[in-house]
Each structure stands twice: as structure tokens, then as C-alpha cells.
Fold this protein.
Amino acid sequence: MLPRELVDLMRELAVFPVVVGTSDKEGNLHMTFLTWIYPLDERTLRVALSSSSRTAENIRNAKRVVVQIFAPYRSLTCYGVGKEIIDRIEGIPFEVSVFEIEVERVENTLFPGSTITGIIPFAHSGAVKEMVELDSAVMTVLRNWE
């Protein structure tokens, strides 16, 4: 299970950067960086991805997902199974799908004698106002879809 204080922290922030790993049916690995993630509870993560991305396709086809979370004093690897729950979010200018990840196991992967002092710094570049509005729209769906 994810620690409750980490769930609370992830819920408080507008976006929370993580690294997600998947594989295709042949076992080819793929990693991606994303910020559209929301913990429903200590065992369920909800993420939004470009519908045509390799990560989305891998979750649809092979189901296995690994999420690496870096937070103050923590490096946690969450192993789980993903499923698509929304094939396209309405009102978004490109195709974005939503997936839920059922977390089966969490490992502390911070090596002894080390610590993480904060959250991965993240900022939009380019059309900042439009990206913040997009983040807000996607995160609203992640938080509120039933």
C-alpha cells in the first residue's frame, strides 16, 4: 500500500511527476515521464495518457504497470495492473485516455544512506496558460470520474 501521507501529498498538488514503465506483449520495455496521476486511495492510481501513446497501448494489451514515485524522503516503486476506464476525455483538444492501476506491491527503492529532499521540479514551457488549463481539465476528470 502507498503511505497515507504520500496519497495526501499527491492529492494536494496540481500535478505530480512520476515515471511509468510498461511492456508490450513481446516483453519490450517502455518508460515515460508523466504528471497526470491521482491516487484514489492507497491501492489505486488513476493516470491520463495520450490515447495513441506506446504506454497507453501497452497497458491496454499487456496490463502490467510500474510507477516510480519520488517524493520527500521516499523513492517508491509501485507494481500493478492497469485497465482503461475512459477511452477519450471529452472537451480535450486531443485524444486522452484514463487508466486505473491496481497497486499490488510497493517497494522502497531508496538506497541506504540517501534521501530525496523534495518533489521532482516541474514547470511548463511554451504556452503556459494553455498547459495549466489543460492540466486542470484532465486532473478534474481524474479526481471526479465515477
In short: The two ends are 22 Å apart (CA to CA).
